[in-house]
Each structure stands twice: as structure tokens, then as C-alpha cells.
Amino acid sequence: MAKTTKGVILAITLNLASWVAMGQDPHFSQFYANPLYVNPAFAGVDRCPTVHLNYRNQYPAMGVYQTYAASYDQYVEGIKGGLGFTALQDEAGDGALSLTEVSGIYSYHLAVNRKFSILAGFQATFRQRALQWDKLTFPDQIDEFYGFVKPTNELPPTNQNVYNLDLSVGFIGFTKNFYVGVAAHHLTEPDEAFLTEGKLPFKFTAHAGASIPLGRKRLHNATQNMLIPNVIYQNQGGASQTTLGLSFNRSAISGGLGYRFGERNPDAIVILLGFDPGNIPVSFGYSYDYTVNDLTNNAGGAHELSLKYSFPCRVPKKRLQQLQCPKF
Questions:
Q1: Contact at 8 Å (CB) between 64 and 90?
Q2: Distances 80 to 23, 108, 118, 152 between C-alpha atoms, Å
Q3: What are phi and psi of 33, to 5 degrees?
Q4: Are 34 and 71 in contact (CB under 8 A)?
Q5: Stated pTM of the model
Q6: Host H or E run for residue 233
Q7: Between vectors from CA 285 to CA 279 and to CA 290, what angle results, nearest 5°?
Q8: In this predicted model, what pLDDT tens digit does every residue of 272-291 receive, in sequence order?
Q9: Given Cys at both, which of 40, 75, 171, 269 links 123, Cβ 3.0 to 4.6 Å?
Q10: d(CA 304, CA 69)
Q11: Cβ(187)–Cβ(40) under 8 Å?
Q12: Residue 257: which of 243, 240, 276 has the closest Cα?
């Protein structure tokens, strides 16, 4: 057991070291339950004020990654678009390395014709990367019998907090039942290294999906059975990731499966469940990532929770073609 614990701690240390050298963004399996994080063009797409809350715990058996996110957005008739605000806190290695970011978003909404609309989003983000040196462990601290008890000869960096301003853009085109979008994050590629130069790599995202009605819509209920296929592709710093998803919505219950993989190796199978009662403006989501890569599922996979709250509002009579909001 002691050797296993040492190995885990050392693995975390090495992982943190690589992250400091070349950072990448945290990700969410329920990516459409955190739409502004995927693409800033989604701001205001629900028309009424909307709040999203998200929590992700990755590899809980190791206590490595936890991510918290919150967002608010709404459509504003006077500026012909949506406004959004997001906040994210990401912690690695029991808080040894953390990321905090706050963003403001504007999305311009354009109705090209009665059936097709375009959204263009612009995002400005303030980022803080913080390092808690006293939580790191190094190989020279290991005693053969007592574990990590020796002092380290490694010297902490002078600056353990890095601040940056970052810019991102995104575009979405959609009809009533189909959507496709692209986003470009970290256009400024800010330097987030604590020791030597290390730019945050540019991230490209492409995503698409559809909402396919099944059967007849119920007369006294606005909901309808839907089949919802979707795909998202992301590339950052030379590493790419693709997630294929298929969800089914029946009345208040949603469920689905996703498969995430990289260029050469599989990553995880994602199991998704959602609940949207319809009579109250709150919906919930849960997902579990079953790891299928070389790490295996011994680290505990990943658990993710999401909550959406939509405030009631008056929707203007003249409006864009309504987008069937993506699930998960």
C-alpha cells in the first residue's frame, strides 16, 4: 500500500510539472450543459435569463482534478444579441495548481432568413494561474522506509501567481433542428509559466448536432420525444480530442452515451442522465466517464453534475428561428 501511495503522489507531481510547462484547458463531458464554455456564440440563445452550474471530479481515487463552473446569459433586444458572464475554478493535485478565470461575452444574433440564423460571439477573459509550492512533492524527499519526509533541494519560483487577459471568438449557424459551430480560444496565447516561458496554446473547437423529433408532439405538453446526435472536436497544443454522443429525450427524462478518443488512443465512455420536469424552470444532469485508456478505471473515472435554471421572461414577437438547445 505504501509503495502504491508513493507512486500515485509521484505521478501527480510529474503530471503537475508537465502542466506547468504546457497548460491545457479543463474539459466537461456534459459540454452542452456548459454552453458558453464550448462557444461564446451561445450567449443569449435561450432568450430568457439562464444560469448554468457545473462540477467535475476527475480521477476521484487519486484526488487529482476538480473543476467548478458557473455562467449567466440572456438575450438583450436593444443590442440585437446576448450577454454572458462566466466563472471557472480548476484545481489539480489537491489544489497545488489552480486556475481561476472570469469572462464577459457578447454574441451578435443575425437572422439570415426565416429558417437560418447565425450567432457570432466575442469573449474577454481574465485568468489567474496559481501555484502552492508547499503542496508539491519531489523525488529527493523520499525516504526508503518513511516516505516523503526529507526536505527538498528544489527552489520555488519567485512568482507563484500569473495573471493574463485572454480573447476568444466563436460562430454558430443553425436551423430549427440542426446546428454547427466553431470557436477559437486563447487568441493571445498568454504566457502562464512560473519558471520559464510557456504559452497557453491556441484551442480550436468544431461542434455540430441535430434534434430529430420522434413521433407526435403531445397536445398539452411542449415537450417532444427527441433523438439528439452530436459531435465535438477540439485541438490544443498539438493534442486533439473528439467526442461522439447520442442522447434520447423522452418527456422529462434524458439519457445518452458518448465516446471520447484522441488521435491514437481511446479515452472514455460517457454515460449521461438528465431530468427536466418542465413544470419548473430547473433541469439537472449527471454523467460518469468510464476510463478505457491505459490508465484504466482504477483512478475512479470522472463524475460530473450540472444544473440549469431559466428565469421567466417575455420573449419578443420578432425573434430568430428558435434553436432546439443541445443536450449534454
A1: no
A2: 36, 6, 12, 58
A3: -85, 0
A4: yes
A5: 0.85
A6: strand 226-236
A7: 160
A8: 999 988 788 999 999 999 99
A9: 40
A10: 11
A11: no
A12: 243
